[in-house]
UniProtKB/TrEMBL annotation:
Pathway noted in the entry: Cofactor biosynthesis; thiamine diphosphate biosynthesis; thiamine phosphate from 4-amino-2-methyl-5-diphosphomethylpyrimidine and 4-methyl-5-(2-phosphoethyl)-thiazole: step 1/1
GO biological process: thiamine biosynthetic process; thiamine diphosphate biosynthetic process
HAMAP family the record matches: TMP_synthase (MF_00097)
Binding-site residues, 2-[(2R,5Z)-2-carboxy-4-methylthiazol-5(2H)-ylidene]ethyl phosphate: 142-144, 172, 192-193
Name of this chain's protein: Thiamine-phosphate synthase
The species this protein was found in: [Clostridium] hylemonae DSM 15053
Cofactor binding remark: Binds 1 Mg(2+) ion per subunit.
Length: 218
């Protein structure tokens, strides 16, 4: 029997923070994630592209323990096996990763599955295959992901209207442009550099949390 099940609530998607070790500057990723959570991050995604499996697993356990202590959902980006190994709350996959239905079969019905989507067709398929939420973007130009494809705000609105599952926007989002997403139908925003690249992570998260709440009408 599994010891931990995180009940999924779309309100937890309000300020979705995606990690990036490029801005560690002598700190640890776990310490930075704690600052983000204390500032108001409501959901954490661990994104690692360059760590070996052993390092990734060790780091995932540390961040997971922290998130559990704050009762904040924690998912792993792309790596379904790491997510399964540590009994993470779930996983987020892109269009080139394992398909949502296969992820569900691997992790079980009680895990949170997020899927990246850039079109209405991708969004509907992800929903059909069992995704719990969608990450749509890039809604603004971004330097955090080299292969990011920009998604127009009209397409973002169309996706939100087409699906019944929650949608968050990602890509180039910062304090200065969150309000431009008002009325799109999203329930939150995913950020990387706007939090983890900030000089004061806690303050950046606090300001973004307030802006996101205003944008979605909380």
């Amino acid at each position: 029997m599994k010891e931990h099940v995180m009940k999924f609530d779309k309100k937890s998607l309000l300020l979705y923070a995606v990690t990036d070790r490029r801005w560690l500057k002598g700190s640890t990723l776990t310490a930075q994630v704690e600052e983000a959570i204390r500032g108001g991050a409501t959901f954490i995604q661990l994104r690692e592209k360059n760590l070996d499996e052993e390092q990734f697993l060790r780091e995932a356990r540390e961040v997971q323990q922290l998130c559990r202590s704050f009762h904040v959902p924690f998912v792993v980006n792309d790596n379904v096996e790491i997510a399964a190994a540590i009994d993470a709350d779930g996983v987020h996959v892109g269009q080139s990763d394992m398909e949502a239905g296969d992820v569900r079969a691997r992790l079980g019905h009680d895990k949170i599955i997020g899927v990246s989507a850039q079109t209405v067709e991708q969004a509907l398929l992800a929903q059909e295959r069992g995704a719990d939420y969608l990450g749509v973007g890039a809604v603004f130009s971004t330097g955090s992901k080299a292969d990011a494809v920009e998604v127009s705000h009209d397409t973002l609105k169309e996706i939100c209207r087409a699906v019944e599952i929650p949608v968050i926007a990602i890509g180039g989002i910062g304090r200065e442009n969150v309000d431009m997403l008002a009325g799109s139908g999203i329930c939150g925003v995913a950020v990387i550099s706007a939090v983890f690249g900030a000089p004061d992570i806690r303050q950046a998260a606090r300001e973004l949390r307030g802006a996101a709440e205003k944008m979605v009408g909380v």
